TrEMBL record, chains A, B:
<comment type="subunit">
    <text>Homodimer. Probably interacts with PlsY.</text>
</comment>
<keyword id="KW-1208">Phospholipid metabolism</keyword>
<dbReference type="GO" id="GO:0006633">
    <property type="term" value="P:fatty acid biosynthetic process"/>
</dbReference>
<comment type="similarity">
    <text>Belongs to the PlsX family.</text>
</comment>
<keyword id="KW-0594">Phospholipid biosynthesis</keyword>
<protein>
    <recommendedName>
        <fullName>Phosphate acyltransferase</fullName>
        <ecNumber>2.3.1.274</ecNumber>
    </recommendedName>
</protein>
<dbReference type="InterPro" id="IPR012281">
    <property type="entry name" value="Phospholipid_synth_PlsX-like"/>
</dbReference>
<keyword id="KW-0808">Transferase</keyword>
<dbReference type="Pfam" id="PF02504">
    <property type="entry name" value="FA_synthesis"/>
</dbReference>
<dbReference type="GO" id="GO:0005737">
    <property type="term" value="C:cytoplasm"/>
</dbReference>
<keyword id="KW-0963">Cytoplasm</keyword>
<keyword id="KW-0443">Lipid metabolism</keyword>
<dbReference type="GO" id="GO:0043811">
    <property type="term" value="F:phosphate:acyl-[acyl carrier protein] acyltransferase activity"/>
</dbReference>
<dbReference type="GO" id="GO:0008654">
    <property type="term" value="P:phospholipid biosynthetic process"/>
</dbReference>
<keyword id="KW-0444">Lipid biosynthesis</keyword>
<comment type="pathway">
    <text>Lipid metabolism; phospholipid metabolism.</text>
</comment>
<comment type="function">
    <text>Catalyzes the reversible formation of acyl-phosphate (acyl-PO(4)) from acyl-[acyl-carrier-protein] (acyl-ACP). This enzyme utilizes acyl-ACP as fatty acyl donor, but not acyl-CoA.</text>
</comment>
Length: 328, 328
C-alpha cells in the first residue's frame, strides 16, 4: 500500500506473478475492502493463488521509520513480516518506505545469528553480468566488522540468487592498495583478507560498472550516494547524448533511428528488470522495491523473493559465519 | 615531469598557453637539459614568456606521498612551490602524483589562516553549468569543521573562478532532510546552516548532475568514489548505447550518423575542457591535472591557474573566515 503510485501496479504485478508462475502464491496486504474492490475491477475474485490479508494501516513515505512501525502494528509491513514469522508466508515484498520496512523486518523476524547490522543490497547492471552492491542505505556509520558481515551476506546472495560460482568480493575504496581508504575500510580489508571469501581486494568507483567484480561492499552512506549518483548521471548522459544526436541528425531522423536503441538501453539498465533490493541479515526474506515500481518490477520482485526463499540464502549465511568462527 | 605520458603533452600545453595568452608566462620545471632539447625539437629557444627552471628529481606515481616529497627536495613540485613561495611564480600546475603535489604545497606554502585541511576540488559537467565538487580525495576521514571549511573555500572558488553570483552550496548526503546522513554530515549541516554561505541544504547523489547546485561538499573518500564511479559509468553507458545503436542501425550507418554526436558529447564532459583540479586552502595557487592530460588539458589548466591567481580566491577565503569568526 505504501508505494508512490498507489496499489494499482502492485496488484497488477501480483496478478502477473501468479498467472506466469504456477509455483507462486501471493497474499495481498492492505485494507481488505479496497483490495477486494481492486481485484473485482480486474475480474479477479477468490483465486487459488491470490488472496487478501487485512492490514488496515499504511506507513507513508514521510513518516519516521522506527516510530511509525512501533505505532502501527496493523500496517501492511508489520502484518506481512508477522506472516513470515508464523511460517504463513515465505517472503515479503514492499514498495513502501524502505527504512520502515527494514525496521519492521528486524522487529518481527530478528537478525540472523552472527549479524549485528542487516543491510540492503541492490543489483546494478554492468558491461558484463550484474553486480550486487551492499549496503545501499540501511547503515550510515559502519564499523569494520559490519562491512565484513555485509560481505558474507552478499557473497551468499550472489552465489545462490544470482548463480555466481565463488563470487568475487571487492571492497569499495579510493585505491587498489591495501592501505587505501578511510579508517573503517582499512580495517575491513584485513578482516576480508583473513576470511574464506573470494576477496579480490579494494575496488575503485570505476570498477563497479566494469563487470569484473560480483559483490561490492561499502557502508550505507557511500552506497546510497553511489546508487543515486548513478541514476542521476545515467539520466544526464542520455539527455546530453540525445541533444548531440538531434543536433547532428536533426530531431525527426534522430527520433526514428535512435529511439529504439535508447529504449533497449533503458531496458538493460532498468531496475525493474532486476526485481527489488534484498534485505540481508534478517531472519526471513524481504525485498524492497522502488516506490515508483511498475507492475513488471513488482512481478520480478515477487519472482526474486520466491527464489531467495527457495535457495535458502539465510542458511548459507549462517553456515558461513559459523564455519569462520570455528576456524578463528 | 611526473605525468603518465611523459613531458611531451606538458610542454606542448605550455607552448600553446603562452602563444594563445599574451598575459601568461610559463616556467617549465624539470631536468634542464632534457627540457631544452624538447623545446629545441619544437623550434623553441629562449622565448620571452617560456623559460626552463632546473629541477632534476621526479616523484613517480607509485611513491608514498609524504616520504617522497621529504626526500626529494629538488623534485619539480618542491622546486615549483618554492618559486611560488618566493613570489617568482604565481601558481603551479602539475600532472604528477596528486598526493605528493598536495603534500609539497602544504610543506612549501603552508595552509591558509583558519584552514586545517586543504582539499582538492574538481569541476564536473552537468545538464546546466558545471558544478564544483570538493573534497575529491585529499582527506578521507573528515570532521564536521573540515566539511564547513571545504564549503567556504569552494564557495569562494565558484564565485571568483567560475563566475557564480552567490554560489548555491549543497552538502552531499542520503536525503534532503537535515537529520539525514552520517555523523559528520549531520553536524556539518548545522555549521553550514549557521554560516553566511548560500547553503541550500543536503543534496543527494542525483542532484550532482542536475545543475541545480553550484558547489557540492563531501569528504575525500566519498568524493573520490563519486569522481571515479562517474568516469566508469559514463564509459559503460557510452559502450552500452553504442552496442544498442549498432544493433538497431547496423555498424556502418551507426558509425556515420552517431560518431559526431558521441564525439561532441565526450568533448562536453571531458575534464580537459575544464582545466585541472584546484588545490584549496594552501597559501598559494596549485592546480592538479589528470596524469594522462593532453596538451589541451594542460593549456586550459595553465589558463585556469592564471585566472585563479588573478582573481585572488585565497584572499576571499581568508576574508570570509575572518568575518564568520567576528560574527560568531
Amino acid at each position: 500500500m505504501g508505494g508512490d503510485r498507489g496499489s494499482g501496479p502492485l496488484i497488477d504485478g501480483a496478478v502477473q506473478a501468479v498467472e506466469q508462475h504456477p509455483g507462486i502464491e501471493v497474499l495481498l496486504l492492505g485494507p481488505e475492502e479496497l483490495l477486494r474492490a481492486e481485484l473485482a475491477q480486474r475480474g479477479k475474485g477468490a483465486e487459488t493463488r491470490l488472496s487478501v490479508v487485512h492490514a488496515p494501516q499504511t506507513v507513508s513515505m514521510d513518516e519516521a521509520a522506527v516510530d511509525s512501525v512501533r505505532r502501527k502494528k496493523d500496517s501492511t509491513i508489520m502484518v506481512g513480516f508477522d506472516l513470515v514469522k508464523q511460517g504463513q508466508a515465505d517472503a515479503l515484498v514492499s514498495a513502501g518506505h524502505s527504512g520502515a520496512t527494514m525496521t519492521a523486518a528486524i522487529l518481527q523476524l530478528g537478525r540472523l545469528k552472527g549479524i549485528s547490522r542487516p543491510s540492503i543490497a541492490s543489483v546494478f547492471p554492468t558491461l558484463k553480468e550484474p553486480v550486487l552492491v551492499t549496503d545501499i542505505g540501511a547503515n550510515v556509520d559502519c564499523r569494520p566488522q559490519h562491512l565484513y558481515q555485509f560481505a558474507v551476506m552478499a557473497s551468499s546472495c550472489s552465489e545462490l540468487l544470482l548463480n555466481r560460482a565463488k563470487p568475487r568480493v571487492g571492497l569499495l575504496s579510493i585505491g587498489e592498495e591495501p592501505g587505501k581508504g578511510n579508517a573503517a575500510v582499512k580495517e575491513a580489508y584485513d578482516l576480508l583478507k583473513a576470511s574464506s571469501l573470494n576477496f579480490i581486494g579494494n575496488v575503485e568507483g570505476r570498477d563497479v560498472y566494469s563487470g569484473d567484480v560480483d559483490v561490492v561492499i561499502c557502508d550505507g552512506f557511500v552506497g546510497n550516494i553511489v546508487l543515486k549518483i548513478s541514476e542521476g548521471l545515467a539520466e544526464a548522459i542520455q539527455q546530453m547524448l540525445k541533444t548531440e544526436i538531434k543536433k547532428s541528425l536533426g530531431a525527426s531522423l534522430a527520433s526514428f533511428f535512435i529511439r529504439p536503441a535508447f529504449r533497449a538501453f533503458r531496458k538493460r539498465v532498468d531496475y525493474a528488470e532486476y526485481g527489488g533490493a534484498p534485505l540481508l541479515g534478517i531472519n526471513g526474506v524481504g525485498i524492497i522495491c522502488h516506490g515508483t515500481s511498475s507492475a513488471v518490477a513488482i512481478r520480478n520482485a515477487i519472482k526474486e523473493a520466491a527464489k531467495m526463499a527457495e535457495c535458502q540464502v539465510n542458511a548459507a549465511i549462517t553456515r558461513h559465519l559459523q564455519q569462520e568462527v570455528v576456524q578463528a
